Structure formats: C-alpha cells, structure tokens
Amino acid sequence: MSLQATIETLWQRKQDGLTAADVGADELAELDAFLEALEAGEIRAAEKRDGSWEANEWVKQGILLNFGLRNTEPRTYGDVTYHDVLPLRDTSDLMEKGTRNTPDGTVIRRGAYVGSNAILMSPAYVNIGAHVGDGTLVDSCDTVGSCAQIGDNVKLGANTLIGGVLEPVESAPVIVEDGVSLGAGCRVTSGFVVGENSIVGENTLLTPRIPVYDLVEEEVIYGELPANRRAFTRFVESSIGDHDLFSGGAYKPAVVATDIEATTLEATAREEALRE
Question: Are residues 136 and 160 in contact, defined by beta-carbon separation less than 8 angstroms?
C-alpha cells in the first residue's frame, strides 16, 4: 500500500472513531514513516500544478493524524521541559546539507523540511509540514507556520511571520516562491501567494483581505502578489468615507506593486556574502 493510501485509510478510521488510546505499534510506525517523508522532502503539503498552487489534502490529513492519534508527553529542549505530541526534528542531517541553524532558540518541529545551504537564525521557529527551500535565510524572530511553502533563495527578514494553514485540508497554505525577499516585520497569512523574485518592503501585511494595486498590469487583485514585483504598504481611501469620529475620511491599508528596478536588487545581492 502506498503512503498516501495508508494515510487515507487511517484518516477514515479516525473519522469512524479511532482514538490515540486505540493506536498500536503498526499505526505509530505509519505515522513515523509519514513524518520522515515530509522531512526528506519526498512529500509536500502543497504543490504547483498547471501554474496554480494546490493543497495535497492527504498530506494535511497525515499531519492532523499525528496530532489526533498521539498522546501528549513530557519532553526536553535544553534545560526546558515542554509537553507535546511530537518531539523536535532531528537536525543531524543539516550539517551534511551545508545548512546552519544557530543555537539558543532555533526550533524546528518534527515533520518540517529544510533544504541545503539554508540559514536559520535564532530565535526562529519552523512548524510541522513547512518546506524551507535551498539557500533560504530564516532570520531572527521569524515564524514559518504549519504547511507554509518557502521556495529556494528566499530571504525572510527579521521578525517576519509566515502564517500556517492546516485546516481546512483542501485549502492551500501560504506560499513564498523562489527568489523572494521579505523585509523585516512582514506578515503573510491565510494562503497568500508571493510570486517569485518579488521584493516586499518592511512591515507589509499580505493577506487575501487586503487589495494589491498592481501598477504593472493596472489591476486590483486579492490573495497574491504577482512575480517580479516591488511591493510596499500604502493607505487608500476607505468606503466608510467621512465620519463625525474622523473628519476628512477614513483610510485602509493596501499594497502597491510596481516593476522591480535594478537598484532595488543591491540589498539582496549583499546576502550572497553569507553563503560564500
């Protein structure tokens, strides 16, 4: 039986009433094999098909099964005792990949994939089901949420939040494609897709509820930033308009996207020195 068929069968058994108390060695071995496949990059929570990102429902089901069919146990991280259904990820493979994870707070949860020649600065957190590509920098105080898909050669600036989308299982998670640079303090949530080679200014919020004014194609779009854009936050007039509480009208946040100019690439080019 394939891994997908195994997980789908186990998922149906869970719907029919299977609990952690009923789980034996065989089921735990299946769940462990699933986590190992995630960590090896053999399976992913979402993949690009025909130009669009789609969730792999069975993979997200497998992650949920690892929560629902395991018991919470006391575990240790350094001198700290914590309680969870899963241990942290074994990071012994990172050195042979040329990947660096600094001490004192870099946490990678079981079931997360980290590619080659990546850098994870402390404190940073990478959750289960996340995929961090080759050559990517996860800077200090960053969070990469469950199932988030981060491409190759991405820069996540300090204090960046990449949200997770675990449920519903049919919904695609947050996607940050290859070559993207997110400035410090950016937040990407709710399945938003950041197109490849885009540069996003500091403290920009990218979420499907905030419009993106694409000045290249001269259109307003939601839920994605097209490839090869330079984006930043601006405030535009709200439909609320004028009000006694705020004379002169109300405003709401928006994202403005323009062409990438050659000069904007200087900051990202300097990052290459970190990997030489």
Answer: no
pTM, 2 dp: 0.93
Paired tokens of 9: 């069968």
Give a yes or no: residue 187 inside a domain.
yes
Task: Give the separation between CA 47 and CA 177, rounded to whole angstroms.
Answer: 11
Contact between residue 160 and residue 182 where contact means Cβ atoms under 8 Å apart: yes
Domain that holds residue 85: 74-198
Find the radius of gyration of the CA atoms of the chain: 20
Q: What is the distance in angstroms between the CA of the first residue and the CA of the last residue of the chain? A: 44
Sheet strands side by side (includes 142-144): 106-108, 124-126, 142-144, 161-162, 187-188, 205-206
Q: CA-to-CA distance for 175 and 48, rounded, in angstroms?
A: 10
At 76-124, the pLDDT tens digits run 988 889 999 999 999 999 999 999 999 888 999 999 999 999 999 999 9
**Based on the structure, what is the number of domains in the chain?**
1
What is the rounded CA–CA span in Å between residue 189 and residue 178?
18
**CB-based burial label for 186 (10 Å; 0-12, 13-18, 19+):** buried
pLDDT at 47: 97
User: Which amino acid, residue 69?
Assistant: L
Report yes or no on 175 lying in a domain: yes
Position 262 confidence tier, pLDDT thresholds 50, 70, 90: very low
